[in-house]
Write a structure and sequence with these properties.
This protein is about 55% helix and about 5% strand. It has 16 helices and five strands. It has two domains: about 110 residues, Orthogonal Bundle (Helicase, Ruva Protein, domain 3), CATH 1.10.8.350; about 140 residues, Lysozyme, CATH 1.10.530. Strands 3-5-4 form a three-stranded antiparallel beta sheet. Strands 1-2 form a two-stranded antiparallel sheet. The longest helix has 26 residues.
Length: about 325
């Protein structure tokens, strides 16, 4: 018996090792990757940040040494939904019945804060609610990725936007110190966005507000602060009070010949493209963005105005902005 054990044990160990390897390969590929945050580039980052802040170089390096490279972050940012889905597919995800019903509940529960945002910033309650609904289903899904891991991975292992995410990583260090938050406790999206409104660190520092006046800017647990912060963000980016955001138009009227890029010219033909039922007195004379949206069987055509471009400052995707517009309109129709 002992002799048989000697002969079979190495074989069993090899089999176990192979099994463990494949489990790690499938479920935890980052463990096998020889990627870390102890490179010369990371050291230079720590040097730069320590010179411009109250952080010590050693403190920054210790924090980054505790971070984990996450391949899933690279995978996700390389194929965002806005680039892989048609408008019809995107709309079905973000304009579902549950999101509409829960949005109406959110508006009822937070009507005082939403009214205050509209009074102070000029942002309609439906727009603020739609953004929070599209971003996180009203705070129910705020992201499970460690923000430190996400931003460190993108800063040092995603060359296409490395400079941008290095700045966001710096902002994260500064934000957590200013707000007295533990940097390794924060969770968010794969791109490092946090809270009900999904603010990246730089946006948090610039636009988050303490709307309930309790001394903290809490975008994770306080709907009031989240509502005020979304409103302040749009206001600071130039939202025009009571101005139409977008309207569906006739796609055959000639205004779409310029393509789908943002323009700032006045379109003489715009009014000829409008539905007969529209109130033409409230239509801005300047169309900022023509929108050609793929749906089953063809396309839908919309004219986006100045406030549509402001929504795209929140998220650069025209599909995202249109989801916010149509969800906000659905709230109005369901009143």
């Amino acid at each position: 018996m002992w002799g048989n054990d000697v002969n079979t044990k190495p074989q069993k160990n090899i089999a176990v090792n192979i099994l463990v390897f494949f489990i790690l390969l499938v479920f935890c590929p980052e463990i096998l990757a020889e990627k870390n945050f102890r490179t010369p580039e990371v050291i230079q980052f720590a040097n730069d940040l320590s010179e411009k802040s109250q952080y010590q170089r050693s403190e920054i390096l210790n924090v980054l040494n505790s971070a984990n490279h996450r391949q899933i972050v690279i995978d996700n940012i390389s194929k965002p939904a806005e680039k892989t889905l048609s408008w019809g597919e995107y709309r079905d995800i973000f304009l579902d019945k549950a999101r509409l019903d829960n949005g109406k509940i959110f508006m009822k529960d937070n009507h005082l804060d939403l009214a205050r945002v509209e009074a102070e910033f000029g942002i309609p309650a439906e727009i603020v609610t739609a953004i929070i609904g599209v971003e996180t289903r009203y705070g129910k899904i705020m992201g499970s990725h460690p923000v430190l891991d996400s931003l460190a991975t993108l800063a040092f292992y995603y060359p296409p936007r490395s400079s941008f995410f290095k700045e966001e990583l710096k902002e994260l260090f500064l934000m957590t110190r200013e707000e007295n938050l533990k940097i390794d406790d924060l969770k968010g999206s794969y791109a490092g966005a946090m809270g009900m409104g999904q603010f990246i660190p730089s946006s948090f520092r610039r636009y988050a507000v303490d709307f309930d006046l309790d001394g903290n800017r809490n975008l994770w647990e306080q709907p009031s602060d989240s509502i005020g912060s979304v409103g302040n963000y749009l206001y600071e980016h130039g939202w025009r009070r009571k101005e139409l955001v977008a309207i569906e138009v006739d796609g055959d009227c000639g205004i779409f010949s310029i393509g789908d890029s943002i323009e700032s010219a006045v379109f003489d033909k715009l009014h000829d493209c409008l539905p007969k039922s529209s109130d033409r007195k409230n239509i801005p004379s300047r169309m900022v963005m023509p929108l050609k949206l793929a749906v089953p069987g063809g396309y839908k055509y919309w004219a986006g105005f100045w406030n549509f471009s402001v929504l795209m400052k929140y998220n650069r995707s025209d599909l995202y902005a249109m989801a916010v517009v149509q969800l906000s309109e659905a709230f109005k129709k369901s009143d």
